[in-house]
């Protein structure tokens, strides 16, 4: 006991070590329980809640452990006779105990109980002896007994009297008889082989009917209590005329064996007494005497024939033997006595009884093998093989039965449990006796397997691919991720979260923690990000939580939200004021035909009708003319010499620029330019003027003109000079 409580008082253990220690302690406790028995005694008729024992003190158990380990008392049988207070550790009687009611016809009355502890399991056997107190007086079956004795009876003749009954036992039971003073009779006391005291009336002086025809005697029965209690009965003696012969039984003792399941009215035995007298003096009648009330209820005696038959339900478990005394009386009131002893034979008429003492209704699925689930006892009130029992479990279940002591069994696990495979068990325990006709009973135990967080969530996919069109609205839902958990309750409750990665920007996506819905936080730009991936974690609500991860890939779909941009050639503030374009037109015939046209473009500052008219009347100006004028003016101010030099430099520069433009014009295949059938003339040249800074302005061809050439450059062969100028670029269109 000391070792057990010291171990429980230790600090934290690891899971495996704790289980091993508990199993060790359980084995020690069971071994100690078999060897140790608490024994107490209690007088009967004590009041309700009477003190029996201080269990906590006797076991050396701290009071805090009584409630923590759910200590309780369990009595044998269906009725609970004792209570254990977990706060004080005191064992008390539930009700007033009457020894004569609890243990009838027994000299000793011992009540067995067990103290039951949980966490870990421990059983301690206890016995309470109910001590008899002198609370019952001797009682005669009849208040008056009548004896008819012939006057010819010789001194020394004995006449049995009805014995008194005292429910108390031992010293408190019937101890002695006394007879009131009289001149003719005395008492003789005797004890039978069964220890029962009997009393006989002994004739000491000859009777004379003519002198005294009737005598009244007072018979007193006294017990040995302190103070003693007594009971009385009147004995009336009727003196008869002479009757020469008394009845004589064939045997002094009749011994009979009778099965306890014997039917009513079955013949038990026939007693016979013979009287040789004639007439009424030879006619014998039979009656019970010195027989207990219970035996009189179970057996019936025919007064004329002497047949004893079954009159009640015999029960071997109640009484194994019944003893009776039969008196045979003739017509002259002479009588004789014989004894009848009936031995009740046990038959297998009681099925085993299963009494559940403790049950753990729910055990975790990670409970180790050999975990105690329930404790129960099996009782069969039969004897011998009829009362011998065995227990088994129906079906192939991960449980086993372990016998302990006093017909107690433990229901234990014998394999690993898995709630996801089987969440609950309905265990049927069958108890069977060993009788020739075997009787059995069943008890069902329902055990629920509680969940342990042993399964991580599982995503339905390893990679989720979702798409969204760029320029989306904020908080747009684009799909959902789903993970399931095979556990139950909070262990199966899944929460979703993004896995943050250090060094990376916060993703543009969000996952709802409860539903797994995926949202885009803000508008996306395909031109910046066309796709991205994030990792999503699904964690359950266990302790510690288990988790799984999946990849979420978001693909951004492009939409036409950007205008084309000319990458080459790049614009230059120093572009030439006039540009020449050659346009090729080709049909789809066989063979294909084509024609070309040359388009001259002039860049101007501002645009008006005046520009258009001037452009039609005036040859195109040198694109560098303003600069030349500025230079000439500057040079003129300095010296005339520099003016001539500047003019010469300008002329040379203009010629080089025109030559460069001519060299950069595209060259078309000969087949397109030389073909004249079904095509426009070989070449047309258009002059178009635009305002400086124009990007998307429209233009139109007004009319065919001769090609417009820069100053100083003659038209090519087959080309004509032409000039077109437009004042308003916004009003021009191309055809």
From TrEMBL:
One Gene Ontology term, aspect cellular component: plasma membrane
Residue stretches of biased makeup (Polar residues): 720-729
Membrane topology qualifier: Single-pass membrane protein
Taxonomic classification: Eukaryota, Metazoa, Chordata, Craniata, Vertebrata
Subcellular location: Membrane
Domain of life: Eukaryota
InterPro entries attached to this UniProt entry: Cadherin-like_dom, Cadherin-like_sf, Cadherin_C, Cadherin_CS, Cadherin_N, Protocadherin/Cadherin-CA
Residue span(s) of domain Cadherin: 82-140, 141-249, 250-354, 355-459, 460-566
Transmembrane annotation, as ranges: 627-652
Protein name: Protocadherin gamma-C3
Coiled coil: none
Alphabetical keyword list: Calcium, Cell adhesion, Glycoprotein, Membrane, Repeat, Signal, Transmembrane, Transmembrane helix
Recorded GO MF terms: calcium ion binding
GO biological process, one term: homophilic cell adhesion via plasma membrane adhesion molecules
Sequence segments annotated as region (Disordered): 716-735
Organism, as annotated: Lanius ludovicianus (Loggerhead shrike)
Classification via SMART domains: CA
Record's signal peptide: 1-35
């Amino acid at each position: 006991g000391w070792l057990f409580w010291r171990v429980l008082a230790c600090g934290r253990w690891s899971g495996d070590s704790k289980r091993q220690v508990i199993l060790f302690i359980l084995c020690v406790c069971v071994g100690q329980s078999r060897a140790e028995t608490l024994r107490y005694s209690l007088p009967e008729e004590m009041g309700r809640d009477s003190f029996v024992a201080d269990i906590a003190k006797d076991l050396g158990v701290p009071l805090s452990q009584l409630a923590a380990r759910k200590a309780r008392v369990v009595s044998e049988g269906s009725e609970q006779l004792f209570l254990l207070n977990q706060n004080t550790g005191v064992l008390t009687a539930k009700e007033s105990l009457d020894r004569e009611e609890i243990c009838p016809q027994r000299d000793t009355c011992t009540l067995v109980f067990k103290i039951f502890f949980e966490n870990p399991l421990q059983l301690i056997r206890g016995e309470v002896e109910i001590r008899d107190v002198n609370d019952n007086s001797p009682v005669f079956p009849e208040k008056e007994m009548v004896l008819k004795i012939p006057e010819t009876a010789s001194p020394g003749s004995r006449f049995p009297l009805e014995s008194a009954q005292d429910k108390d036992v031992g010293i408190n039971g019937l101890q002695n008889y006394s007879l009131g003073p009289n001149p003719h009779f005395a008492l003789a006391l005797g004890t039978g082989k069964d220890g029962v005291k009997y009393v006989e009336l002994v004739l000491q002086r000859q009777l004379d009917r003519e002198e005294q025809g009737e005598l009244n005697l007072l018979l007193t029965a006294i017990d040995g209590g302190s103070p003693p209690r007594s009971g009385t009965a009147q004995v009336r003696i009727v003196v008869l005329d002479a009757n020469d012969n008394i009845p004589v039984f064939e045997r002094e003792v009749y011994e009979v064996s009778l099965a306890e399941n014997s039917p009513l009215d079955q013949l038990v035995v026939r007693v016979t007494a013979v009287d040789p007298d004639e007439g009424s003096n030879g006619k014998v009648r039979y009656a019970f005497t010195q027989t207990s009330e219970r035996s009189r209820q179970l057996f019936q005696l025919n007064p004329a024939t002497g047949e004893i038959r079954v009159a009640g339900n015999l029960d071997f478990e109640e009484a194994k033997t019944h003893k009776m005394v039969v008196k045979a009386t003739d017509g002259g009131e002479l009588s004789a006595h014989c004894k009848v002893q009936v031995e009740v034979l046990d038959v297998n008429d009681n099925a085993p009884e299963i009494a559940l003492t403790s049950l753990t209704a729910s055990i975790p699925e990670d409970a180790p093998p050999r975990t105690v689930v329930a404790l129960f006892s099996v009782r069969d009130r039969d004897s011998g093989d009829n009362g011998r029992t065995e227990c088994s479990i129906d079906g192939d279940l991960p449980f086993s039965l372990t016998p302990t002591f006093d017909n107690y069994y433990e229901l234990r696990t014998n394999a690993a449990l898995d709630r996801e495979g089987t969440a609950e068990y309905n265990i049927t325990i069958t108890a069977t006796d060993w009788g020739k006709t075997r009787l059995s009973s069943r008890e069902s135990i329902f055990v629920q397997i509680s969940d342990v967080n042993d399964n991580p969530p599982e995503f339905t996919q390893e990679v989720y691919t979702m798409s969204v069109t760029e320029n989306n609205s904020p908080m747009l839902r684009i799909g959902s991720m789903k993970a399931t958990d095979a556990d139950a309750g909070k262990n199966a409750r899944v929460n979703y979260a993004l896995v943050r990665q250090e060094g990376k920007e916060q993703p543009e996506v969000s996952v709802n923690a409860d539903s797994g819905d995926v949202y885009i936080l803000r508008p996306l730009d395909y031109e910046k990000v066309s796709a991205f991936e994030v990792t999503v974690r699904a964690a359950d609500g266990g302790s510690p939580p288990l988790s799984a991860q999946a990849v979420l890939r978001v693909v951004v779909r492009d939409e036409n939200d950007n205008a084309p941009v000319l990458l080459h050639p790049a614009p230059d503030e120093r572009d030439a004021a006039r540009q020449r374009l050659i346009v090729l037109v080709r049909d789809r015939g066989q063979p294909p035909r084509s024609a070309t046209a040359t388009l001259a473009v002039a860049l101007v500052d501002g645009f008006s009708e005046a520009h258009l008219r001037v452009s039609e009347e005036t040859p195109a100006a040198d694109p560098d003319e303003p600069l030349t004028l500025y230079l000439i003016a500057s040079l003129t101010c300095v010296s005339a010499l520099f003016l001539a030099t500047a003019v010469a430099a300008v002329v040379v520069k203009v010629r080089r620029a025109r030559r460069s433009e001519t060299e950069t014009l595209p060259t078309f295949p000969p087949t397109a330019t030389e073909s004249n059938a079904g095509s426009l003339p070989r070449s047309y040249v258009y002059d178009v003027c635009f305002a400086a800074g124009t990007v998307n302005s429209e233009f139109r061809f007004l009319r065919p003109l001769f090609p417009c050439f820069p100053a100083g450059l003659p038209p090519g062969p087959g080309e004509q000079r032409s000039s077109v100028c437009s004042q308003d670029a916004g009003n021009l269109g191309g055809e």
